[in-house]
Write a structure and sequence with these properties.
Elements (H helix, E strand, L loop, with lengths): L1 H27 L22 H8 L6 H10 L4 E6 L2 E6 L2 H9 L4 E3 L3 H7 L9 H16 L1 H22 L4 E3 H18 L4 H18 L10 H29 L9 H7 L10 H32 L1 H16 L10 H5 L2 H14 L4 E6 L3 E3 L2 E3 L4 E5 H5 L39 H18 E5 L6 E2 L5 E2 L4 E6 L4
Parallel strand pairs: 2-8
Antiparallel strand pairs: 1-2, 3-5, 4-12, 5-8, 6-7, 9-12, 10-11
Helix pairs in contact: 5-10, 6-7, 7-8, 7-17, 8-9, 8-12, 9-10, 10-12, 12-15, 12-17, 13-15
């Protein structure tokens, strides 16, 4: 009996050892001698790799435990081998290691998980080649981030912000994050499609919420899983956008389309590249899906966290408010609202926004794939392996940002971050194309919030969720109260 028990125990130990090393044998053995120059780390269990430890950390109250465990096991190398989202991967956690990954387009291409590519679209910025990315970025830059466009958007954004804040102050308890996401979605829908239809926006925003939960989920297309639900949401969104594209084309062809302004849809329909080629419907829809998804999620979350942080730190709130009051005092009597020029003068508010972006780190990582064998800091990155630049580790590096978990806009006084130490919108040629529009939205909201309102959270110390983005589990249940005009 004892012999049977010992044999069974030995078999279990052997099986565990085999399973723990299966990924290494499968992915590292074909590398030959190059496997000895791989970064430290492990590839985890078959199929799931290190995803279990990643999900366990990010579904706890200590998401840093995932990277901290690697550091404690393998040292402060700044680069580790792992197996994430179905692929052998290299995680880089320092500005020095991330430099080549984010700036060398000859060595790296997008390497997003299958779930992201399928849901955002194969014609979006997340999936296309460097050449196509450069072409699309050039075609869409002016309508999104151009000076003239931003100046025009300022008035509309301000109108929506003023009416929304007034409405929320009369509603009692609200899910502050939910309402902010609706606000930013309404803004982005107007900018891109000139749409202000409440029923359409409500329906689309719900579909986008489902889509976003599946973007970084495991690509398990079975009922009940986030990816399966997100695929259905994408199908509904594509169908809706296809009908919008068809209607716009038909109206323009019939000559009965009169635009109040040229929106992104018009720009995408009109644009012709250097070879005389127009965008296909599939390309237009994927670009719209990408911009609309990114354009309201990050802005809404950042607005919420900025308000939360400022309410928790009255000294920063008052300093930011004083700047906005001074801007209002300087306005000529004939000026009705905020101008783009004033936005550019909001130096301290810009620091508040940057500090919020750093602390929250809306996108914790970006995905690339090695197009060839690459050397980073003396370690080998094999061709075809994914590389994850872990923004969260860079933003929380105490050598770059002392007391990194502390919200402190004053740290930005007369401070210019060194290259690749501040990455809220990525870096290199694939820098987020809507970054200027996002910061403008956030600034306009905070301008009016600081001047006239305060936020009272119902559960100020409530639990947080960290996937897909950091947020309170109650979506920041709060009361918005008017506190008098400046």
């Amino acid at each position: 009996m004892w012999m049977v028990l010992l044999c069974s125990l030995g078999a279990l130990v052997a099986l565990k050892w085999l399973l723990q090393n299966a990924n290494s044998w499968y992915y590292e053995t074909p590398l030959g001698e190059k496997k000895f120059s791989l970064p430290p780390g492990d590839l985890g269990w078959p199929f799931i790799g290190n995803m279990w430890s990643f999900l366990r950390a990010f579904k706890s109250s200590n998401p840093e435990a995932f990277l901290n465990s690697m550091v404690s096991r393998f040292g402060h190398t700044g680069i580790y081998k792992t197996f994430m989202f179905g692929s052998p991967s290299i995680i880089v956690t320092t500005p020095e290691a991330s430099k080549k990954v984010l700036t060398d387009d000859d060595a790296f291409k997008p390497g997003w998980p299958i779930s992201t590519e399928e849901l955002i679209g194969k014609n979006s910025f997340t999936s296309i080649s460097f050449e196509e990315h450069k072409r699309l970025r050039k075609l869409t830059a002016a309508p999104v981030n151009g000076y003239e466009a931003l100046s025009v958007y300022t008035t509309y954004i301000e109108e929506r912000v003023i009416s929304s804040l007034d409405k929320w102050s009369k509603m009692g308890e609200i899910e502050f994050l939910t309402q902010l996401r609706k606000l930013t979605f309404r803004i982005i829908m107007y900018i891109f499609l000139s749409s202000e239809s409440e029923p359409v926006m409500e329906a689309l925003e719900k579909e986008y919420t489902i889509l976003n939960y599946g973007v970084r989920a495991m690509a398990i297309n079975l009922p009940g899983f986030a990816y399966h639900k997100a695929l259905k949401a994408r199908k509904n969104l594509v169908s809706t956008f296809q009908s919008i594209v068809d209607d716009r084309r038909a109206q323009r062809k019939a000559g009965n389309y009169v635009a109040k302004k040229k929106d992104m849809m018009d720009a995408l329909l009109d644009v012709v590249d250097d070879d005389g080629r127009k965008l296909t419907d599939a390309e237009i829809i994927d670009v719209l899906l990408m911009y609309l998804n990114a354009g309201h999620e990050s802005s809404g979350h950042t607005m919420m966290w900025a308000a939360v942080f400022l309410q928790k730190h009255p000294e920063f709130f008052q300093k930011a408010k004083a700047e906005q009051e001074e801007i209002v005092k300087r306005r000529p009597p004939t000026q009705k609202g905020m101008t783009f020029k004033e936005y550019r003068e909001m130096e301290y508010l810009s620091q508040v926004i940057d500090e919020t972006l750093r602390v929250v780190t809306f996108s914790l990582t970006v995905f690339r794939e090695a197009k060839k064998d690459v050397n980073i800091n003396g370690y080998s990155v094999p061709k075809g392996w994914k590389v994850l630049v872990w923004f969260r580790s860079i933003h929380y590096d105490s050598e770059i940002y002392p007391n990194p978990l502390e919200f402190n806009p004053d740290r930005w006084d007369n401070y210019t971050p060194k290259p690749l130490t501040f990455l809220p919108f990525g870096a290199g040629s694939r820098l987020c194309p809507g970054n200027d529009l996002a910061k403008l939205e956030i600034a306009i909201f905070l301008h009016h919030f600081l001047l006239n309102y305060k936020m009272e959270p119902i559960n100020p110390d409530g639990p947080l969720m960290y996937l897909p983005h950091t947020r309170p589990k109650d979506n920041c249940l709060a009361r918005i109260k008017k506190c008098g005009s400046a």
